[in-house]
Amino acid sequence: MIGKIRELAKRWIAEGKTDAIFGLKEENGHVAPNLFIKKSELERLVISPNYSLCYTLRPKNSNIFSLLERKYPNLKIGVVVRGCNERALFELAKRDQVDLERIEILGIACTKEEALECRCPKPYPQNLLVGERVEGVTNDDNVEALLKKTLPERLAFWNHEFSKCIKCYGCRNVCPMCFCQDCRMEKEQWVKTGVLPPEDPIFHFIRFYHISERCIECGECEKACPVDIPLLTISKLLRRDIKELFDYEAGLDVKQESPLLTTLDETLIKRGE
Amino acid sequence: MKLILDVKQMSEMKETSANSKKSKDDFEPKIIAFTCNWCSYAGADLAGVSRFQYPPNIRIIRLMCTGRLEPEIVVKALSHGADGVLILGCHIGDCHYLTGNHRTKKRIAILKRILSYRGIDPRRVKLDWVSAAEGYRFAKIVTEFTNEIRRSGPNPLKELA
After folding, report:
1. CA–CA distance, B74 with B155 (Å, rounded to integer)
2. Is 3.40.50 the CATH number for B33-151?
3. Does A242 lie at the interface with B, CB-CB under 8 angstroms?
4. What ipTM does this complex have?
5. Among A56-60, A98-102, B145-149, the least confident range
6. Of A259, A261, A257, A258, the residue nearest A272 (C-alpha)
7. What is the pTM of this model?
8. Domain boundaries, chain A
9. Where are the domains of chain B?
10. Residue ranges of chain B with pLDDT lower than 70?
11. What residues of A are in contact with residue B102 (Cβ under 8 Å)?
């Protein structure tokens, strides 16, 4: 599979379809995001470990595309994306963080094992070019367990979970959908500073609410959490709710506007209005 | 003669109300109400001017528009000791800023879901519409909401703060 991806990437550069390829590069045993410009370099292109590439795509004023755009306005970049990366790209494009016209999507499918590990509902991108698509994981044990609990049980459960929080901001920092320059989770006005665990429930509520309708279920927050708080549980439930309430699913349709940016009859509220 | 009877009746009424209070552990809910400047605050004003009775448990905070109300504010109110949060805005279509209440309606719907997953009764938050002419409706909503919160008891988040 990796051979096919490298081959395709090389062909894109050779044919001039893209000027460069953005993907993971292995060097001296370490893997990091890299912009491949030469064809020969592409031998180092890898797809594992499953590092969230989208993390490097935000925020707008410092993501790789914006930085390059200043110097090379017409540069076209091919990006090696998995299902979650593509959903993130679509959501970021809607919010004016990346310009999809400068991006060529080289979609790759995840394996069954990878999908199970991430509990991913859609482990393949829409622009699938390499790999076989496998079915996503639909049921989630954490979600079902939470739904079975009564309100006081949920309260006790989360009180315990959030009391473990060490306020490392890992969940926020790794989230491909968090791109504000000024974060409310850091503001004294909203969250008491200098106390551990952070003020509950407001600290975690801010994050859950802000990514409620845009969460793409990549699960990076949960993977990043050093104290294993099952953060994805609430985000997964919210994704279901947003579908039920507004018939909207983040990252599937690049043209459909977020329900929080539209009126009740789904006309877009323009900025400054 | 009649006056004395009235006083007697009143004192009896007081006693019964005091008894019923005791059975509910003397719980008087604190309710924060966010009203918009153009419709609901004027509606509250009208309720006052028209002398419609409603429970004194609410503390009104006036906003220019319910579209100003971030859900974070509601969560803050709850975690700082409010037993219920009442949000009153203009009827859909009547917003002074055209679409402010559209946004609030969507936001509060999401907020309620998060609260229920977190283990907080989403009925502690209520969004409704009151126009400037609906003083009676304002009094009615406040009365009903206060009774509902009184039934559900103190906010469990208070102990956390």
Report:
1. 13
2. yes
3. yes
4. 0.89
5. A56-60
6. A261
7. 0.87
8. 2-130, 141-261
9. 33-151
10. 1-25, 160-161
11. 263-264, 269
